[in-house]
């Protein structure tokens, strides 16, 4: 498959930016899914040691990818401990 893509790119050099953009989009999507699987508090990989990881988050933990107007270091805890 890779050999076919290389042959097409040699015959039609205008396809090279298309291959680069599609490839970088796929890599970016894969990295974002890996970030969600590793650092999102909704995902629990180890149910024996920490069955509910979302209860152990402090208010200053930023788990969103991008927050517009929220400074997480100044937030106070307004929920009970479980």
From TrEMBL:
Cellular component GO terms held in the UniProt record: mitochondrial inner membrane
Subcellular location: Mitochondrion inner membrane
Origin: domain of life: Eukaryota
UniProt xrefs under Pfam families: B12D (PF06522)
Keyword tags: Electron transport, Membrane, Mitochondrion, Mitochondrion inner membrane, Respiratory chain, Transmembrane, Transmembrane helix, Transport
Ranges that cross the membrane: 15-33
PANTHER family: CYTOCHROME C OXIDASE SUBUNIT NDUFA4, NADH-UBIQUINONE OXIDOREDUCTASE MLRQ SUBUNIT
Family, per entry: Belongs to the complex IV NDUFA4 subunit family.
Protein name per the record: Cytochrome c oxidase subunit NDUFA4
């Amino acid at each position: 498959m890779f050999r076919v893509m290389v042959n097409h790119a040699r015959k039609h050099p205008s396809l090279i930016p298309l291959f680069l953009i599609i490839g970088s989009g796929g890599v970016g999507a894969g990295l974002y899914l890996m970030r969600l699987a590793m650092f999102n508090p909704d995902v629990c990989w180890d149910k024996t040691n920490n069955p509910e990881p979302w209860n152990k988050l402090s208010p200053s933990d930023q788990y969103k990818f991008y927050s517009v107007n929220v400074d997480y270091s100044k937030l106070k805890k307004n929920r009970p401990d479980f």
